Amino acid sequence: MLSVLExxxxxxxxxxxxxRIVKGWNTEILLEEKDASASYFLDVxxxxxxxxxxxxxxxxxxxxxKIVCDQEIMQGLFEGRVNAIRANNDGLLEIYGGMSDQVKFxxxxxxxxxxx
Length: 116
What we know:
Blueprint: H1 2-14, H2 16-22, E1 27-33, E2 38-45, E3 48-56, E4 65-69, H3 71-79, H4 84-89, E5 93-96, H5 99-113
Parallel strand pairs: 1-4
Antiparallel strand pairs: 1-2, 2-3, 4-5
Helix pairs in contact: 2-5
């Protein structure tokens, strides 16, 4: 999963259209896989994903947004195979946090993969 997130980071940070939309966006996103022992953290600073970290569950860093789902859904979400809105509506994905963070995340998915 870490390699998937690193590729996502590179793709987001290199995309000029995404950078225009998320300029000034600062947030911390916790990614918790229900069926795995590790969780992940994305630190977004001024619209760029500054860091991707893996850590053991239970040692959660401070975060503004949290995404919780099974490992397969999480990987599909960051590879562009899973629509976050549909997965959330189907009960496969839980998103906690501000609506503006969710909208920006959805915009990234639409631009990178055409998912809406």
